[in-house]
Amino acid sequence: MKKNQRPVLYVHGFRGGDYTTDKMVKSGLKYTGKSEFLKALINWRGQITYEGAWTEDESPIIQVVFQNKWVGENQIAHWLTRLLIDLRKKYQFEEYDAVGHSLGAVSLVIVNLFEKRHSYMPKMHNLVLIAGPFNGVLGLNDLPNINRITADGRPAFMSPTYFRIYLNRNNISSRLKVLNIYGNVEDYSNSDKYVSVTSASSIAYVLRSRVREYYDMPAVGEKAEHSLMHDDSDILQKINLFVYAPDGD
Question: Which pLDDT score, from 0 to 100, does residue 98 have?
Fold first, then answer.
């Protein structure tokens, strides 16, 4: 393996699978001129198996797939922490980038909260959040146009998950660079049909003042539907530029 490798993890969310991140992975491979990647399969007991190959370039790609696709963000974050420690033991890298869709995005923020607690964990560098239900899901613990962002950027209401992240906000890594992508299909709900704009964008109140760089990227129209954003060509291009283009570090 080469020194200073910084792998890129692609993480799906609730009810997702490898099909969720396939186009993102293929787009990343094309952008970097690679043909191989590593797939990490995590079963319902948290046992990890691998398929494919760890590449020798600067940004090996790892597609993370959970056998149990019905678990919540805390369990996903626990499994991701175990995976990161296992990968570091095998390949000796110190930093990594990550792309998460839906609950995978929420889980990656929670993983970042663990860094100070686990000294052997590799450190998150670039983080892409796509359609993250940080402050509720429509029909579960959120309703269209009920919550709002106040003048100081704070959400008027905090879900239990959001409140937990907020309480632990000082554990967020100051070295982190974040791109938050969220959708609005432009109907009455101001949402991507599953996650409201308020829910997805409210994470800015926690992250913006604590990380190195933070960017919002709203998507609108048909391409902004929750399960379409991770396949949209414009969004894929933005993800690749954010993750793989040199940033001077």
Answer: 98
Calpha distance 169→113 (Å, rounded): 8
**Secondary structure (DSSP) of the chain:** --TT---EEEE--TT--HHHHHHHHHHHHHHHT----EEEEE-TT--EEEEE---SSSS-EEEEEES-TT--HHHHHHHHHHHHHHHHHHH--SEEEEEEETHHHHHHHHHHHHTTT-TTSPEEEEEEEES--TT--BTTTB-TTTS-B-TTS-BSS--HHHHHHHHTGGGS-TT-EEEEEEEE-SSTT-BSSSSBHHHHHTTHHHHTTTSSEEEEEEEESGGGSTTTGGG-HHHHHHHHHHHHS----
List the domain boundaries for the chain: 8-244
Q: In whole angstroms, what is the distance from residue 220 CA to residue 184 CA?
A: 5
- Taking the model in full, what pTM does it have? 0.96
For the stretch 88-145, pLDDT in tens is 999 999 999 999 999 999 999 999 999 988 889 999 999 999 999 999 999 888 889 9
Tokens of 146: 């009920």
CATH class of this structure's domain 8-244: alpha beta
Please compute, for residue 100, the number of CA atoms within 13 A of its CA located in the half-sphere on the CB side.
29
Contact of 14 with 102, CB cutoff 8 Å: yes
The amino acid at residue 139 is: G
**Structural tokens at position 148:** 């709002």
Give the rounded distance of the alpha carbon of 143 from its chain centre.
23
Which of 224, 135, 212 lies closest to 187 in space, CA to CA?
Answer: 224
